[in-house]
Amino acid sequence: EDQVTQSPEALRLQEGESSSLNCSYTVSGLRGLFWYRQDPGKGPEFLFTLYSAGEEKEKERLKATLTKKESFLHITAPKPEDSATYLCAVEVIGTASKLTFGTGTRLQVTL
Amino acid sequence: DVKVTQSSRYLVKRTGEKVFLECVQDMDHENMFWYRQDPGLGLRLIYFSYDVKMKEKGDIPEGYSVSREKKERFSLILESASTNQTSMYLCASSSLAGAGETQYFGPGTRLLVL
């Protein structure tokens, strides 16, 4: 069974304190791994797609990386506006565009 | 910019009522999806559709049905709402252009069934 596990469940950082969120996956064949940001009461907002091990993508203070077993979302010098829940999802080969989601990491960045 | 809209942000219904949730996308996407999101369980796929009048069951279809009469519109129907269907409902769409296409989400509908 395809599984996606995110850790930690919750993370509290001070402004400027860099850290990483983890997404580990067990799938039969990976077509793509997606990162989303979700603010309270809103729909997920797309951040990145990674397709193969070794791939990296960056956007402002966020950098996503991918290995054969996991992905990391690195947050460099976070600001309070980075506070949100970060969701990881995988598309598995042969599942026709369906995504399997992890339960997310709730990030709080304080002053 | 991709835009996915959902008919209501908040809904309160009574047990046994028939409930319609509507989703519209403006990017001519072939794929459309309905999820529900519950604390600790993440997003779970209810139904999806690859084309007009086509539908496929997701992981938790029981108690739900869907309708896709036009390419841009995908409706989720709760035939007889129950309290365990209280949840956040999210619609998404994606292109069928290739593998690993991004799903874009609407703002969500928070449904409370009393």
Describe the structure.
The complex is a heterodimer of chains A (111) and B (114). The mean pLDDT of chain A is 95. Chain A has strands spanning 3-7, 10-14, 19-26, 30-38, 45-50, 56-59, 62-66, 70-75, 84-92, 99-101, 105-110. Chain A starts with a strand and ends with a strand. Chain A is mostly beta strands and 111 residues long. In chain A, the strands form two sheets. In chain A, strands 2, 4, 5, 9, 10 and 11 form a six-stranded mixed sheet that branches. Chain A has a five-stranded antiparallel sheet with strand order 1-3-8-7-6, with no helix packed on it. Chain A has a single domain (3-96), classed as Immunoglobulins (Immunoglobulin-like). The radius of gyration of chain B is 13 Å and the shape is globular. In chain B, strand 7 (64-70) and strand 8 form a beta hairpin. Chain B has strands spanning 4-6, 10-13, 19-25, 31-38, 42-49, 56-57, 64-70, 73-78, 87-94, 104-105, 109-113. Chain B has one domain: Immunoglobulins (Immunoglobulin-like, Sandwich), CATH 2.60.40.10. With 114 residues, chain B is mainly beta. At the A-B interface, strand 4, strand 5 and strand 9 of A face strand 5, strand 9 and strand 10 of B.
In brief, what are we looking at here?
The complex is a heterodimer of chains A (111) and B (114). By secondary structure, chain A is mainly β.
Q: pLDDT under 50 segments of chain A (min length 5)?
A: none
Amino-to-carboxy terminus distance of chain A: 41 Å
Shape of chain B: globular
* CATH topology type of chain A: Immunoglobulin-like
Number of strands of chain B: 11
Largest interface: A-B, 24 and 27 residues
What is the makeup of the main sheet of chain B? 7 strands, mixed
The CATH homologous superfamily name of chain B equals Immunoglobulins
Strand % of chain B is: over 45%
Summed up, the helix count of chain A is: 0
What is the number of strand segments of chain A? 11
Q: Give the radius of gyration of chain A.
A: 13 Å
Task: Give average pLDDT of chain A, whole number.
Answer: 95
Q: If helices are DSSP runs of H or I spanning 4 or more residues, what is the number of helices of chain B?
A: 0
Question: Structural class, from helix and strand content of chain B?
Answer: mainly beta
CATH-assigned homologous superfamily of chain A: Immunoglobulins
Quaternary structure: heterodimer
Structural class by sheet pairing and helices of chain A: mainly beta
